[in-house]
Amino acid sequence: MKILVINSGSSSIKYQLFNMEDESVLAKGVVERIGIDDSFISYENGNGQEITIEKDISDHKEGIRLLIDTLLNEDYGVLNDMDDVEAVGHRVVHGAEEFSGSVLIDDKLVKTMEDVADLAPLHNPPNIMGIKVCQELMPDKPQVGVFDTAFHQTMPEKAYIYALPYEFYKKYGVRRYGFHGTSHGYVSKRAAELLDKPYSELKIITCHLGNGASVAAVKNGKSVDTSMGLTPLEGLVMGTRCGDIDPAIVPFMMNKLDISAEEMDTIMNKESGLYGVSGVSNDSRDVEDAAAEGNHQAEVALELFDYRVKKYIGAYTAAMGGVDAIVFTAGIGENSIDSRENILEGLEYLGLKVDKEANNCRSKEQIITTEDSRVKALVVPTNEELVIARDTMEIVSS
Questions:
Q1: Stretch(es) of the chain classified as CATH 3.30.420.40
Q2: pLDDT score of 23 more than 90
């Protein structure tokens, strides 16, 4: 069975085509700068051929049509016919309480997704757009929605309710939802496999650390808490997001700067985090380079990032009554040797000892603590697209 996975953003479409017989990637790439000058599609097939096609791509329909043409190309394509594709799996950021798992999509479900889109106005509308375009261009293909929020629907009420008037939750759905659920679910299960222990008996803290970053507490195979909230803004310091702050800062700065709620929201989401503190970049690698050259703000930004992760690890260890494994994933988690070491430093009281030689690794599965460590720390590269493909195959098959 071949499954096409689509992650549709406001001006881009990431895609992967899987052969589910062996879960190999037949082709992958991204359509970039949709509706913007200098748009293009990048493509790589399983044979290692890499192609970039520069073309005016005015909308998502044209982008997905170009994607299909690329897969069918007689020189570098991997399909003889689109009939070879059994189904399409879509990443959808926010499922609210309506979706606690992946679903087969029909018009009614699209309407439900649109009804909760105001909870993720930057993400859900382009996700839905990608679904509608695929329904139009591939009407005979089952479409499956896989939600970032679904994995966290097992959180108890005490973890997801905010201490606001309860009617905010009942009338407007204001609660903690959490995100990166596909990633947290995948890497926590994979960690259990690498440790050769039952997933249902472990207490695992997963750290998805990238431009967007979150931590999750996974107890006995279920998410019981996570750092992101109603939106992806809450929690850790991120590339451009501020994470946890005193909420009184919002009206205070709006009055000081005489700005609107929308402008303040832009500052917190796009001008804060590593970028806001360092004044250098939202890319941790650039911030690390600046810190190495003695840039004080860059040094503070990195220390703040690592410290916030360490605090959440401590909090979730307490919430679960202990921890068996701490997992690092995503761009920073998989690649920043220094960040992992700084985060784990001081956690020796848990029975955790970092193996510096083992920690000297990037983007590969690795246990990075010593053999005698009671608590294990691991690097597990995430694979959200594979999870989407697996869920899609399971739903279509049943």
A1: 2-147, 196-379
A2: yes
- Give me the long-range contacts of 318-324 (CB less than 8 A, separation at least 24): 319/159, 319/217, 319/224, 319/225, 320/203, 320/205, 320/217, 320/219, 320/224, 321/203, 322/203, 323/203, 323/204, 323/205, 323/350, 323/375, 324/195, 324/197, 324/202, 324/203, 324/204, 324/375, 324/376
Euclidean distance between CA atoms 203 and 389, whole angstroms: 27
| pTM, entire model | 0.91
**Beta-bridge partner residues of 60:** none
User: The sheet that has 103-104: what strands, in order across it?
Assistant: 50-54, 40-45, 24-32, 13-19, 2-8, 85-92, 143-147, 103-104
Q: Is 208 annotated as a binding residue?
A: yes
Question: What's the rounded Cα separation, in Å, for the pair 243 and 228?
Answer: 8
Q: Which CATH superfamily is domain 196-379 in?
A: ATPase, nucleotide binding domain (3.30.420.40)
Per the DSSP assignment, residues forming a β-bridge with 51 are 43
Rounded distance, CA 355 to CA 370, Å? 5
| pLDDT recorded at residue 34 | 85
Q: Is 14 annotated as a binding residue?
A: yes
Nearest Cα neighbor of 156 from 114, 219, 207, 204 is 219
On whether 195 is known to bind a ligand per the annotation, the reply is: no
The superfamily (CATH) of domain 2-147 is ATPase, nucleotide binding domain (3.30.420.40)
The predicted model gives 360-389 an average pLDDT of 95
What average pLDDT does the segment 306-317 reach? 98
Q: Is 178 annotated to bind ligand? A: no
Share of the chain above pLDDT 70, in %: 100
Q: Assess contact for 56 and 39: CB atoms under 8 A.
A: yes
Catalytically annotated residues: 148
List, in sequence order, every beta strand (DSSP E) within 322-368.
Answer: 325-329, 366-367
CB atoms within 10 A of CB 48: 6
* 94 carries a ligand binding annotation: no
Backbone φ and ψ of 169, nearest 5°: -75, -50
| 189 annotated among ligand-binding-site residues | no
